Amino acid sequence: MSSSDGKLRYDGRVAVVTGAGAGLGREYALLFAERGAKVVVNDLGGTHSGDGASQRAADIVVDEIRKAGGEAVADYNSVIDGAKVIETAIKAFGRVDILVNNAGILRDRSLVKTSEQDWNLVNDVHLKGSFKCTQAAFPYMKKQNYGRIIMTSSNSGIYGNFGQVNYTAAKMGLIGLANTVAIEGARNNVLCNVIVPTAASRMTEGILPDILFNELKPKLIAPVVAYLCHESCEDNGSYIESAAGWATKLHMVRGKGAVLRPSLDDPVTIEYVKDVWSNVTDMSKAKHLGAIAEASGTLLEVLEKLKEGG
Ligand code: NAD
């Protein structure tokens, strides 16, 4: 939907944004509402390490939206109770079209110092919370043949980051979750993509250098997420990195690889592996594969080659 002035609109759409009481989520919620969506502003309102709860964070954003003439309701549930979050959308607005899984906390510790509680809480909020909210919204989206879902990953997950074992594991887990949600929803126009943001927020205060912190406004990322959630955007299963008024698509790639034995009748030996290791790890002919079937397909080619060799 777009208005006569060419602006992309979300009239009639209901958007649930988790963790929308601050930072990136707040910007997403404000933008969706400004462009006509009815918004559920979910936020538990705890500390950045996940302690406590307060209704204040969500209430302030709902007030902001209403004062600007938009429509919004607050939801104070933890995303771990995803069904309750989605129920708020259904009760208030009767549907859910857009779900931005954004809520997050940090409990940074090195591997050895990470307690089971630190591991569980961070994974519960990011990964399980996104799963629970998505699982609850999915049947409504499938039934109406329309849905746009965002998972929030992080460069910390993609590249690793000292002192963030729990967070980085959860953030890569979200990419795996998005991959499968994208496949399961495609037939019903329920599309799922990943945002990989870098922005100044309480989460990155003291972590990002000042010169970056001041320029990385969350507001600069909101239009990217909003576009991914618009009916005119047909991307599905994309990972989009964005920061500072810039965005790019990310891909996983696979090298050409090397066979590890002369023929089908030969064993694979450690020595042979060592001999061809530079070919195994050569990424000069790396390719992006679009689906698991392509990955299995190349294994059939390998078997053919080995048969020829034997
Ligand atoms: P933020 O701390 O400003 O906002 C996160 C919000 O989530 C907070 O308002 C918090 O109250 C809420 N929240 C926490 N636990 C919740 C729960 N269980 N249920 C509901 N709400 C909960 O952080 P941000 O920087 O805006 O981060 C938003 C998302 O982006 C997070 O998932 C974060 O991991 C991700 N991210 C941020 C950056 C960055 O540079 N800021 C980089 C990579 C990824």
Describe the structure.
The protein is globular, with a radius of gyration of 22 Å. The longest helix has 28 residues, at 116-143. Helix content is 42%, strand content 13%. The relative contact order is 0.11. Strands 3-2-1-4-5-6-7-8 form an 8-stranded mixed β-sheet, sandwiched between helices. Helix 1 (23-34) packs across helix 8, helix 3 (82-93) runs parallel beside helix 4 (116-143) and helix 4 (116-143) packs parallel to helix 6. The protein contains 10 helices and 8 strands. The model has no long low-confidence stretch (mean pLDDT 96). With 310 residues, the protein is an alpha/beta fold.
> What hetero molecules are bound to the protein chains?
nicotinamide-adenine-dinucleotide
- Mean pLDDT across every amino acid position: 96
Number of helices: 10
Task: Work out the oligomeric state of the chains in this entry.
Answer: single chain
Low-confidence stretches: none
Using DSSP, what is the number of strands?
A: 8
How does the major sheet shape up? 8 strands, mixed
| Class by SSE composition | alpha/beta
Give me the Rg, rounded.
22 Å
Order of helices and strands: EHEHEHEHEHHEHHEEHH
Shape: globular
Q: Measure the end-to-end span.
A: 60 Å
In terms of DSSP E residues, the strand content is 5-15%
Helix content: 40-55%
Strand order of the largest sheet: 3-2-1-4-5-6-7-8
